[in-house]
Amino acid sequence: MKLRTALITGASAGLGRAAAVALSSLGYRLILVARREEKLRELEQALDTPCHLLACDVTDYENLARKLSTRPEDFYDIDVLINNAGLALGLATADKVEWQDWQTMIETNCLALAFLTRQVLPAMVERNHGLIINLGSTAGNYAYKGGNVYGASKAFVDHFSMNLRADLIGTKVRVTNLVPGLIGETEFSKVRFQGDMDAVDAVYANCEALTPQDIANTIEWVVSQPQHVNINRLEIMPTCQAPAGLAVHKTSDTP
Ligand SMILES: NC(=O)c1ccc[n+]([C@@H]2O[C@H](COP(=O)([O-])OP(=O)(O)OC[C@H]3O[C@@H](n4cnc5c(N)ncnc54)[C@H](OP(=O)(O)O)[C@@H]3O)[C@@H](O)[C@H]2O)c1
Q: Is a pLDDT exceeding 80 seen at residue 51?
């Protein structure tokens, strides 16, 4: 039987890597995308499934399209697209943030995700078959101080996912937005705080965050649903986290 094929962006670390391990155990062949080719090679060695490595920056759209269009024939039909590559940069408030950081988040989390979807979707519609799993975030549902463009980019992912559902009605192509809260054991905070490990450790101190494996388990469950079932969005938090964050600024002055 022909193996099914999944394309995973951001497969060199964190959730993307865990998703690759999970899907290889379900018998998928994998197209693995990230900038760090050596990490993709290490992953390929660890997996017992055919892999095609696509080492590139997802925001280099021309290069991404060219590499994708020259993939080997065995990897031609993409059954599952996991738009996972993404990042948050800093926690500065909107008046102090670096413009370049906002630009990088929008280009990676929104534009690259939309671009790759646009590349892969026509063949899915033509085959009347396919599943797109986007990685949103609870930051897209609940505002927090310093979340500014990161949260907004994930709100884009949610609405884009639901608008894809609207466009794809009448086809058997499915779309899911996975919406995790705090996840440990990834490079997410190391990237966000530019390698400041004290800041990274403070995020995960004295609490039990989700793990990449928890999200990989969810991805395994989503891809295993029968074709008539579409999981629109799935919000997952560790038990130690809750959406409880409305802020009230108090002053000593009486109104
Ligand atoms: N960790 C959390 O708490 C959390 C919570 C909710 C949602 N999420 C979302 O989950 C997704 C994965 O996060 P993670 O925690 O697994 O982070 P991570 O460990 O930092 O992994 C991010 C992955 O994205 C890739 N990537 C980043 N920019 C890229 C680019 N321009 N081109 C190609 N690949 C790029 C990285 O690979 P290279 O560096 O090798 O390119 C890496 O493989 C993200 O979309 C994130 O927003 C994370």
A: yes
